[in-house]
Design goal:
single chain, 279 residues, alpha+beta, six-stranded mixed β-sheet, four-stranded antiparallel β-sheet, 9 helices, 10 strands, 14% strand, elongated
């Protein structure tokens, strides 16, 4: 029994689904169908899925807490040639924010709640309690590994694992592509050809702003997308009639920034919403 297998059995006993990695941090193909990373839940699938092979197969789907599978003769050659140990965060109810460089670590310390950290060969892993979709390159030097993904085991780390925050979930939300227009700031109110709102009362506009602010403030997750949709809703109703002022836009921006959005993101979201409406 190799040292990696002993570690794997110990982690599996603690509820962490594990698998061996070959050189290059790549999983082994443990059967002929999976040798080219084509493992899936049914024949012909190209993305990894729940294993239906006679024995543990490829990628995150091979991760297991079953000590009999880990120590089986089917996995014995893989452990003998393994270069590292990995685990499936989502299978353990975890999300890993993979920070690849000092700049990414500095960003996380400023932007994310403190949690357990693990030192890696290039940076740090920040572990949170909760599962979400995995996503690569959510920003420079930052990947998210959770559901249907594996990550290398570097050790238990230090600190207490915090609950998965909305700020991390929001990183995986993709907005519509930014239109090719200059970002709009808050230097002047929007003005339509009528110079006023011919079909709505001031009270209606005020209610619309209040609802948008409440929608942003109450968003349980996906704050990026919520901000964009709130801006889009306000602009679709009042963006062409000239009734929006700097004060209205500042209230929306302030609500978004209170949820952790930067001024740049607010400006980009406003520009994207205007572009989507052809404004």
């Amino acid at each position: 029994m190799t040292d990696l297998m002993r570690t794997a059995l110990r982690l599996a006993a603690d509820g962490l689904p594990v698998l061996p990695l070959r050189r290059g941090k790549l999983p082994f193909g443990n059967c002929a169908d999976c040798a080219s990373s084509a493992c899936g839940g049914r024949p012909g699938m190209k993305t990894p899925g729940p294993c239906v092979c006679p024995r543990p197969c490829h990628g995150w789907a091979a991760a297991t807490t079953d000590p009999h599978a880990i120590a089986s003769t089917a996995w014995e050659p893989s452990w003998r040639h393994a270069a590292a140990l990995a685990y499936h965060p989502g299978g353990a109810g975890l999300t890993v924010v993979d920070l690849d460089d000092p700049a990414a670590i500095a960003w996380a310390r400023e932007s994310l709640p403190a949690t357990r950290t693990v030192t890696t060969t290039r940076g740090e892993h920040w572990l949170y309690r909760g599962v979400m979709p995995s996503a690569n390159a959510v920003r420079a030097g930052v990947d998210i590994k959770s559901h249907m993904q594996y990550t290398r085991w570097y050790g238990p780390g230090t600190g207490t694992i915090a609950a998965l925050p909305a700020a991390v979930r929001a990183l995986a939300v993709k907005e519509p592509p930014a239109p090719r227009i200059a970002p709009q700031g808050l230097t002047a109110p929007l003005r339509g050809p009528e110079g006023g709102c011919p079909h709505r009362t001031p009270a209606y506009l005020e209610r619309g702003i209040v609802m948008a602010v409440e929608r942003i403030a109450d968003a349980p997750s996906a704050v990026h997308a919520t901000v964009y949709r709130a801006f889009l809703a306000v602009l679709s109703t009042h963006g062409r009639c000239g009734c929006l002022t700097d004060t209205h836009m500042q209230r929306l921006f302030t609500a978004a920034q209170a949820r952790g959005e930067s001024l740049r993101h607010c400006t980009d979201a406003w520009a994207n919403a205007r572009g989507a409406l052809g404004m």
